[in-house]
Amino acid sequence: MKLVNGIKAWVCAIALGLVCVTHAVAQPVATLADRATIDRLPGLALPKRQVALHTPMEGKLLKVHVEEGQRVAEGQKLVEMDRQLQAAVVEAVKLRATSRSALERARLELAEAEIMHEQVAKAFAQDAARQWEVRRAKLRRDLAQVAVEAAAEAIAVAEAELKLEQARLERLTMTAPWEGLVTRVAADPGATVGPSDPIVVLIDLRTLKAEIHLSVDLYEKMVVGKTYKLSAGKPIDRQIEGRLTYASKVIDPASRTFRCVFEIDNPDKAMPAGFPVQLVSGGGAAE
User: Is the whole-model pTM more than 0.85?
Assistant: First the structure.
C-alpha cells in the first residue's frame, strides 16, 4: 500500500510539473501573438470639426434657439445673451469716439499760442522783449501742439475701443459657424454664465477623423494622401475607406508604433461619431 501511494504521489508531482511548464511556455506565445496584431490597434472615428460656444463675458443667458439633436445651418442663430449692459458700454464709448470738443479746444489754444509767439518774436526783433520771453512763448506753442496731438490720439483710441465693444456686443448673439448638429445645450435661459462655461456644443458629421497607432512595420507602406481600407466596429460593422492625412515622423519607443490620422467622408451624415475603427490587416491601400 505504501508503494502504491508513493507511485501516485510521484505521478501527481510529474503532472503538476508539466502543467507549470506548459503555463510558463504559453504566456510568451500569447504575447507574441498580441504583437503580431499590433498593426490593427483600434482608434475612434470622431468629428473632424467640433466647437463649444462660450460667451465673451459674464452675463445672463436670455434665449436658447436650438435643442439637442437639432441640425443647424451656417449662420443660424443659436443663443442670445442679455445685451443691455454691453449696449450701454458701447454708447458710452461711442460718445468719446465721436466727441470733437477736446480736439477743437486744443486747436484753438494752439492758434492762440502761435499768435503770442509771433508777437513776442517781433517784439524781440525790435528790442521790445527779452530772450526768455521768446523761449517761454515758443514753449507754450509747443505744449499746445502736443495737446492737439494728444486729443487726436484719444479719439483714435476711443474709435478702436468702440470697435472692440461693438464686437463684444455682436458676440452676445451666437450663430453657427458652419452647418452641424447640436449635441449639447449646457445652460437654460436665465442662467448666469461666463467665458469658461460652454453653452452649446456643435459638431460637423460630414467628415470624421480617426487617429490610429500603427506598427512600425507598416511605416514604409503608409503614404499620405492615399485611401486605405478600415474596419469599422459597431454600430457600423463593415469596411469603410479613410484617407491618410497625417503620418507621424515620431515612433513611440515603448509600443513601436506611430500615429496616423485618417479622414472618413460621411456626406450623408449617416454614420455617427465615436465608433471604433482600425486598419484592415496588412495595411493595403484601397483600389
Answer: no
